[in-house]
Amino acid sequence: MAYPTLHTERLVLRPLSLDDLGELAPLHAEPSFWWYPYKRGWDRDETLAFLERQIAAYDDPGVAMSAVLTRDTGELAGWAGLSVPNLPTEILPAVEVGWRLGERFRGGGIATEAGAAWVRHGFETLHLDKIVSIYEPENRASGAVMRRLGFEFENEYQHPRLGVRLHVFALNRQAWLDRNTTRRG
Description:
Radius of gyration: 16 Å
Number of strands: 8
Shape: globular
Number of domains: 1
Order of helices and strands: EEHHHEEEHEHEEH
CATH superfamily: Gcn5-related N-acetyltransferase (GNAT)
Strand order of the largest sheet: 1-2-3-4-5
Largest sheet: 5 strands, antiparallel
Number of helices: 6
CATH topology: Aminopeptidase
CATH architecture: 3-Layer(aba) Sandwich
Helix content: 25-40%
């Protein structure tokens, strides 16, 4: 089965490919893109390895990050999607929704729009019972997106290698259905 392409009002969320390296590498090089948790930008080789991991994950485990393109210009703004988190291991098995955007694409609701599309896909198409989202509490912008999407605090963990605190937020299918039925009605 081909990995899905999702469309929202302002975005196209399509599978990443090696052809995205030229546009993605400058975004990944921005220190703010990877500030949480690495406190630095990534080089081209790290970006290529990231792309290769995402492409492989489309088949196994079947969820991965996708390119976030603006519909009006077709520019690559960053990536978003569903993935299997590798940390914290205490929450596994789990599926996480996440996003990262280039600096000039932040603050306009793109993360919320992309995150909402992937949450909908997770609950409606993949029939997940629960989706998590993980962030460092100092990253207030990501925490705000999670709250706008209806996620609630579940637990706190320490990253074993980097030593940073991580907050795990969660949203279950019934809470999502209740929230979205109320908004439509």
